[in-house]
């Protein structure tokens, strides 16, 4: 079985609309991590049944272990997606699975049997090191020419370096760098491109040697974390602009253009100060950014610092470009904003799922600018939710939001040590896609603390047929 949902007769403008009317998701793929836990086993790719009509609903139905230890599987992408629109030779049958720490890239066959993926090829880190002088791969997107592009956050020595590796879309061999020599950004992380406007924009996390085993606030002052987004010419691969977002924009992580391929704007979530910036093309033809959402820090006692930020770690936009969702990993809430007025997002939904300020925990909130009570711990099917909400994936119809609680094993162990020992969970939030609103589905829980190999840390979510964060329309 292969995954192809585009046809040569599909009009380009109708693609996001057609996706919203697609079949309900039946399975999801999640990388599960053992690095920074007490378990010496390989990370693995879990396949979870999310079909409520299935006898194995909310169960892990397949586990694909990697052949190496301590990879730190993280984010994944596809060998083919909407950018290959109209090319009958392209099928979405390979999941590209980079390893953030080992720098390996696993190519997983999900076409032969989507419910039981198998490893197709392993791209060893030496190829990336020698051909590109890059390491620590993060985000992968397929390109319209059939190649695969992967952003990296460092060089082989652990220093920050925001470059991009190209893979051949058929052989998966490393071709070389996408960017020109000497034009890599100081740091790397995520990226999104918009071909109709000949632009790609990338973000920054930090130097791998600084973040590898935990977060040290002093490293921010030492310049080991980023605070800029970079604008690139999509055709020439030249870096055109660097937009310094200032202290409020420290650690800009996930970036999302609107799904409308004609759009010249989008949003980026900046973790450290919990700020969302809107980026946009100006009438002059260059790019700019403005702050549109701010989650205030809370004054606390019983925590490592006197103020606790929300720590926005993941954001996404619904396929109809109406709603923006993001997670505050430390505060423990997910927020839904109506972005019909692009410059003035309006909060329409919020739900708490764990976090560091639960009412029965060791942290006491002394001052909260939002005047919210400390939330109760979230218990679903008898399991206390560990950690806080982190990775998000929205159903194509916009009605179901899937959530996991692991951010990155080194930071999990530091901020939520109980989760590193007991494993993470996957939850489902019901979304009011008409008027806005979020509520927990109490009948849905996948407990990765009960895995046969021991508790694991489940991270990013992917649907076999494409989703809100993997597809770019031409």
UniProtKB/TrEMBL annotation:
Organism whose genome encodes this protein: Cyclopterus lumpus
Protein origin, superkingdom: Eukaryota
Write out the GO cellular component annotations: cytosol; membrane; nucleus
Question: Which GO molecular function annotations are given, in alphabetical order?
Answer: methanethiol oxidase activity; selenium binding
Q: Which terms are listed as keywords in the entry?
A: Acetylation, Cytoplasm, Membrane, Nucleus, Oxidoreductase, Protein transport, Selenium, Transport
The answer, when asked if Protein transport is one of the entry's keywords, is yes
Its lineage opens with: Eukaryota, Metazoa, Chordata, Craniata, Vertebrata
Its topology with respect to the membrane? Peripheral membrane protein
Name of the protein in its database record: Methanethiol oxidase
Q: In which pathway does it act?
A: Organosulfur degradation
EC number(s) from the headed UniProt entry: 1.8.3.4
Read off the InterPro entries from this record. Answer: Se-bd, WD40/YVTN_repeat-like_dom_sf
